[in-house]
Design goal:
Structural class: alpha+beta
Number of strands: 7
Distance between the termini: 80 Å
Strand order of the largest sheet: 2-1-6-7
Strand content: 15-25%
Length: 281
């Protein structure tokens, strides 16, 4: 090989190496972005399915549960036992939410589901039918039963959802309230125990995921937690009056992209738990 040919070959090899060094980051960026988008679509599909399916199950199995006070010789009309009805609905919601949370833990991991049932005039056997004039909601005409979101539901030692406390046959409101207080105290102690075992970042993310984003307000039922930051009306007062019951399920999830900046610029991905899929039936 002549000296000029050898020199030319070395220059070509050096140029190819430089081109490769410039090309490989772009190829890795494209590959990572593709993986991120596919992962994000999977998260979106799973959370949407869990939100819709759980809301449908709660609406069908839990939202219309009604327990009547046993009639006696001095009573000629049926009356609804509010304490027992609310307790039965809450237990049903907790049971179905527990199954949904276990599915999320097995499929996407960093996600939490929270569920609520709104009942219009729960103590009335014949709720008001003049719903066109209903413009406001309050605790006086709407009862809210819910199950608190808990990422660690599969571990009772780390603040998992407790087994629902059975409501006594007598239906005593005082006994029911006492059981609820005991269960709430246990939840708080377990939650503090789980929180102390996490670092600051994990605790902040857990709090964001478990923060409920569906609220009852005077002008309707709103989704208050969203990426846009603007509350979104889910159910109006007249609609709740007409349906007499509404079930809502919210799935909050945190997505951590491999390529940090590109997906965030394209589709506003985040890891703070503000990504939420909400279904209202």
């Amino acid at each position: 090989m002549r000296l000029s040919d050898r020199t030319k070959w070395r220059r070509q090899r050096g140029a190819s190496l430089v081109e490769f060094c410039f090309t490989i980051p772009v190829l890795l960026l494209v590959a990572g972005s593709t993986v991120d988008l596919s992962r994000y679509m999977r998260f979106l599909q799973v959370t949407t399915f869990v939100s819709q399916e759980t809301a449908e199950q709660i609406y069908r199995q839990c939202s219309d549960i009604t327990i009547y006070t046993p009639a006696d010789i001095s009573t000629t009309s049926l009356t609804i036992n509010q304490a027992m009805t609310e307790g039965a609905i809450t237990s049903c919601v907790e049971r179905l939410q527990l199954g949904a949370q276990e599915l999320l833990n097995a499929s996407v991991g960093r996600a939490a589901v929270s569920s609520k049932v709104f009942r219009w005039q729960i103590t009335q056997t014949s709720p008001s039918t003049s719903c066109g004039s209903v413009t406001t909601l309050s605790s006086a005409n709407v009862s809210v039963m819910y199950a608190k979101a808990d990422v660690d539901c599969d571990d009772a030692e780390n603040g998992g959802i407790n087994t629902p406390v059975a409501t006594p046959a007598s239906g005593s409101p005082n006994t029911s309230k006492k059981s609820s207080i005991i269960r709430r105290d246990d939840d708080e102690r377990n939650y503090e125990k789980s929180r102390s075992s996490l670092d600051d970042d994990e605790t902040e993310e857990k709090l964001a995921l478990e923060d409920d984003g569906v609220d009852l307000q005077p002008t309707g039922i709103y989704q208050t937690k969203s990426t846009s930051g603007t509350p979104r009306l889910l159910v109006s007062p007249s609609t709740l009056c007409q349906k007499s019951r509404v079930a809502t399920v919210e799935v909050a999830y945190a997505f951590e992209p491999i390529v940090k900046f590109l997906p965030n610029l394209m589709i506003k991905l985040n890891t703070d738990g503000s990504q939420r899929e909400t279904t209202a039936l």
